[in-house]
Each structure stands twice: as C-alpha cells, then as structure tokens.
Design a protein that fits this description.
Number of domains: 3
Helix content: 25-40%
Order of helices and strands: HHHHHHHHHHHEEEHEEEEEEEEEEEE
Number of helices: 12
Strand order of the largest sheet: 8-9-10-11-12-13-14-15
Number of strands: 15
Shape: elongated
Length: 400
C-alpha cells in the first residue's frame, strides 16, 4: 500500500512521543467505525480540491479505506500511547505541520514542549468535557486525517514540493485557550472570526497576517511586441504571495481565490532587498530586484480629477470602463466604453454609473446611485496621489 511508505514520518513522531513522558488528560473517545467512514469520506471531499493533481490519485487510495486510521493506531499502540485524546491529537497535528514546513524532524525536547504548550492551551476546563463520544469523534477524527494527508503528500513529494509545504504552513496551529480546543480538521472560518478579522483591517500599512504590499513593473512579450504592465502583490506572513488582488483584503476568501486564480498564488522569501518568488506551477524561482511599496489611503482620503486606465475596469455595475472622474466631495462617475466616440459628462447625482466613494486603507467602496455597493482593492503609487490602483486596474491622470 502507498501509505506504508508515507507512514514512516508518523511512526517516528509517535516513537519520539512515547519515549518522552507526558501527563495525560482523561478526556478521550472510542471511535465508531461506521461513523468514521462518513467522516473520512467527507474529509477527503474537502481536502481533494487542495491536493496537488500529481499526488491526487495515490492520496485518494490512502483515504479510500479506514486503513489510514489503522496504521495511525498501530504506530501509537506499539509504544503504548493513547491515541484518541484531544491533546495528543492536537500535538500530533502541530508536529506534523511544523516538521513539513521546516523540513526536519522534531527533537525529543521539542516534542515535549509542543505537548506541554498544547496541554496548557487546551486547559482542564475544556468545552470537550460535555461532549459525547460521537461529538468528540466528529471534532477530532478530521484533525487526524488532515495531519495524515499532509504527511502523505510530504512523503510522496520527498519533502521537496513547495506547494505541499505551503499547505502545511496554512494549517500550522497557532492558537491558545479554547481556540485550541475548538480546532477542527479541514479548515473553516466561523462568521464571528471573519468579522473579527475584518475589524482588524486598519488604515495603516500594517495589516494582520500581511508582511508587505508591493508594486512592480513587468515586461511581457506578445504578438505585437514588448509591452509593460504594473502589478500589485500581497506578501503574507506565512510565505505566500498573491498577485493582482481584485477584492479588498478584508473580504478576500483565500480558498475561493486559490481555486479561481491558482496561478496568482505563489511563495516568497526575502534576502536583503531582493524578493525570491517561487511559482510551484512552473517549478521556477524568480528574483525580484526592483519593487516599491504600495501606499494605503488614509480613512476618508479623497481623489480629485479625471483618470484613465489601459486595463478596462469592470464590476457588477460597470463593465469595460476606462475613464473615471472623482471629486473632493466624495463623488465619482465612470465613462463606459461601448464602442465609438462617446461624449462624456459626469452626472454625479443621476447616472447609474456614478455615486459616492469611500477610501479606507487598501480599500475603496463605491456606492452607486442605483443602490449597488461594491468594494475593491485600492492602493496609491509611491510617488504621488495621482496614480493608483482600483481592483486590478491601474489609473493615471488624464492629460489636460
């Protein structure tokens, strides 16, 4: 079975954990086989879209039966380690993710520290105390499966696939208290957590989870010769990079974005002033030597003037627009290009392609006269306030 090779890292982890002596919490569960089948299938359906295509077939064979759990149990039982205890499972996940990300095994001391930290965070007053066996299984079986999934992918890739490393990095536990106790398998975010994250997005350059937001000029080659584009990239703290975001960051659905625009998501590292960007889908690394910081607009920042873009702007209300007018009172109006030479006079109060605007940090909200409201990524070029980005369109002032 393919999983026999993929399990070597798991067995090693459990061996080290067995050698180190930990106090155990009494909360545990006895898994039900039939219910486990349902959980395994649901977990694989959630993880399958994120599984790199080159490993998808082999990984599906691993998750086709509950044998993956059997091997997990055997590796633990061989060293008399109680498996179905929440702290053990949470520690197991942390160790797997950390080892894959850093590319080396945990030492005995690190295993001990990881367990003790998890135990403290989990706490004796955990909400799990009132859960039934079935509820505990529903909560913690997916966590085991997610750890097994990452370990399997890492083994198939021999620890050298940046896409797998990125998947592990996204799932590295970094929580305390009841957040640790509430951790689930395939990652989801509650509406309460989403709202909390939205409230953290401020008008400053530093956004939680974001290392930097940059602008760079790219030379491309097409049928008509050489052409130059400007592109924006978001450098996330976890080592991922997103190029040309359209949505504001507080509304960005990362999972959907990766599914819709997989090639916009890559990996980055910085050495000195040089950014090294790895594109897993090309299996190449590029050095970005020239780049600039894109600036946020202060809350209630205003633009005044008429601006053009070579990248036609589009949204739910306006499609294929190349010219926009803003004023200091907070109003805007688009000129929609539908062919031919169309005369244009901004009618701020009546036009359905006009309305009011609000800028707050890296976000601009357009409130149209017809009641439609849209928000886009926004950023100011380094040199002045006359060059800016809305969505993926870059605007320059119209020459007078």
């Amino acid at each position: 079975m393919p999983f026999l090779n993929a399990s070597r890292a798991l067995a090693t982890v459990f061996f080290v954990m067995a050698v180190v002596s930990f106090p155990l919490l009494g909360q545990s569960y006895n898994p039900n086989t039939s219910y486990r089948n349902e959980i395994r299938k649901a977990s694989w359906n959630a993880l399958k879209p994120e599984t790199p295509k080159k490993y998808r077939l082999l990984t599906s064979m691993v998750f086709n039966t509950n044998q993956c759990f059997d091997l997990y149990e055997k590796a633990a039982k061989a060293y008399e380690w109680p498996i179905y205890e929440p702290v053990t499972i949470l520690t197991f996940k942390k160790v797997i993710m950390d080892e894959v990300v850093r590319g080396s095994d945990y030492s005995k001391a690190e295993i001990e520290t990881a367990y003790q930290n998890t135990e403290r965070a989990y706490g004796k007053g955990s909400k799990d105390e009132n859960l039934s066996d079935k509820e505990l299984q529903k909560k913690y079986d997916p966590i085991i499966l997610e750890a097994l999934w990452i370990a399997t992918l890492n083994e198939f890739s021999k620890g050298k696939d940046n896409e797998v490393i990125s998947l592990a990095r996204q799932r590295m536990p970094n929580k305390t208290g009841n957040d640790v106790a509430a951790e689930t398998g395939p990652k989801t975010t509650s509406s309460k957590e989403q709202n909390r994250k939205k409230s953290e997005i401020a008008s400053s350059a530093k956004i939680p989870g974001v290392s930097d937001i940059i602008l760079r000029t790219v030379t491309n080659y097409g049928l008509n010769g050489v052409y130059v584009d400007n592109e924006v990239s978001i450098l996330f703290d976890n080592g991922e990079i997103l190029t040309n975001p359209s949505q504001p960051l507080d509304e960005l659905n990362i999972a959907q974005s990766k599914k819709k625009h997989p090639k916009r998501w890559n990996l980055w590292k910085k050495k000195g002033d040089v950014l090294y960007v790895t594109k897993p889908w090309k299996n190449k690394t590029y050095d970005w030597k020239k780049w600039f910081k894109l600036r946020p607009g202060k809350k209630d920042f205003k633009i005044s003037g008429r601006y053009n873009t070579s990248d036609a702007f589009g949204g739910a209300t306006v499609i294929n627009a190349s010219t926009v007018s803003f004023d200091a009172q907070g109003r805007f109006a688009w000129k929609t290009v539908k062919g031919g030479d169309t005369s244009w006079k901004p009618i701020y109060s009546k036009s359905s392609s006009a309305g009011t605007y609000e800028i707050d940090g890296y976000k601009v909200t357009l409130n149209y006269n017809n009641g439609t409201k849209e928000a886009f990524f926004f950023g100011l070029y380094p040199k002045d306030n006359e060059h800016f980005v809305i969505g993926v369109s870059h605007f320059v002032p119209v020459k007078k």
